[in-house]
Amino acid sequence: MSLLIIGSVAFDAIETPFGKTDKIVGGAATFASLAASYFYDRVKIVAVVGDDFPKEDIAYFKSQHIDTTGLQIKQGERSFFWSGKYHNDMNSRDTLVTELNVLADFDPIIPDSYQDCEYLLLGNLTPKVQQTVINRLYNRPKLIVLDTMNFWMDIALDDLLQTLKSIDVLAINDAEARQLSGEYSLVKAAGKILQMGPKYLIIKKGEHGALLFGEGKIFSAPALPLKDVFDPTGAGDTFAGGFIGYLAQSGEISFDRMKNGIIIGSVLASFCVEKFGTEKLKNLTQEEIKARVQQFVQLSTFQID
Amino acid sequence: MSLLIIGSVAFDAIETPFGKTDKIVGGAATFASLAASYFYDRVKIVAVVGDDFPKEDIAYFKSQHIDTTGLQIKQGERSFFWSGKYHNDMNSRDTLVTELNVLADFDPIIPDSYQDCEYLLLGNLTPKVQQTVINRLYNRPKLIVLDTMNFWMDIALDDLLQTLKSIDVLAINDAEARQLSGEYSLVKAAGKILQMGPKYLIIKKGEHGALLFGEGKIFSAPALPLKDVFDPTGAGDTFAGGFIGYLAQSGEISFDRMKNGIIIGSVLASFCVEKFGTEKLKNLTQEEIKARVQQFVQLSTFQID
Hints:
2 copies of one chain form a homodimer. Chain A has helices spanning 28-37, 55-63, 127-136, 150-155, 157-164, 174-181, 186-193, 235-250, 255-272, 286-300, and strands at residues 2-6, 10-16, 19-20, 24-26, 43-50, 66-74, 81-86, 93-99, 117-122, 143-147, 169-173, 200-204, 210-214, 217-221.
């Protein structure tokens, strides 16, 4: 029994209205596995880095009981690098640099020791690579969650549509749900997307929270109103990692558990955006997490006759 | 004891992607009083119309126990008329026609029989007229709620800031909260606005729900995800009417009651947008309202350890 997470492990350089960073460690699998590790102790990653990736960061994964057997280190090559600058509203950003490097021909090799995977998070990568991971697992996981983005809808829609047929939960943002479905109404968009394969759809709405659709039901999770969103990078990956980490821990797949998973994902994402990169996410205590879960409870609870 | 609502009673002509109307009855006081009347039977309006306003619509107010003693009918003059066209996203619109007519020199006369007012909703009008109503009440109401819009922030900011000092609850949308405070973060915006006079701030976010700030607390209410938003006209007024109607009925002013008031306002607004103008709002049953309240409960309830 384990939770397998694939995605990028990479470098980011980020500029926000609050400051800028040098190259810092980022990537979908980084954020997602750190988030999941607070809830589940059998997290395993499949990813690729170059020999420029710091050994101490790999050691950090291990210290958090994140299995890095599937982390390929390509000698003589460089890690994926992304640089971006956020606008004042923190909702939009310009990409300054994208260097694919090792990601350009990433072949996701699944170690034999990973074949006990019951929970699979396909972090944002090309739909073909995501599909390859599914194909290479001997047994179909109990739960497959896929994160993607508008970029793949633009350039690899057919591959994405194909991969969607094999998954259980799709996590995308509201603009992406509208693009994928061609519907402006998120209810109509969800109706169409749930016919494409996934049994559940999570629509992430940033500062407006998230919606879960499935089993003919809808759940609306709030976002924690924050004084400052310091750096949104990785918030979506963190959300997905917290979501599937919670579900893996609970061992139960149901709409009610997914609601809680969304709250947990939102809690971890709310920490993620408070500092640059993984800084905040690396240094949480269970007490801090529990206290913030209670903030979400208070934020959204009402008693009406 | 009564609930006094001031605002426009007027004609609208609306065009949406779903169709268009001729002149139909609208106006802030119309939507708000209809919404409030489902919860409170001592609703009184102060407004002004021309002699072109249909007698049967005034009769309809009365049939809903809405007191129209304060509805001035100006002989030889015409009612306020607004015409607008919504864009495909239904979040933005173009104003096609604004004829102030009787609203141009509206003097809000308070009948003596209205002086028992304990709850006051100042619907969207010039801040000066809103202030005049406060000044003309012999006793300060238990609760004063003010609705306004960006237009008054643009052309009458000083008057608005003055009026804000006299009220308890301000209801505006997120863009307006940002404009009024000069802060992008809604938490920071709320902090500044709550120093301007109001003890509570409601930030309406349309399809993303609403936030309540006050007493150092925050409540986040979901919006009901709808297949179609048919016509958003009057949704904000309906929200405000439902909010204060619920509070007047409960007789209790507290953060917890206001949370429920926001759910009730959201419930009524979710009905309002399902048809043109007041059509849906005029024909609700208590059973329909209760069922939709339960939808909001199910939409936002989670149980987490």
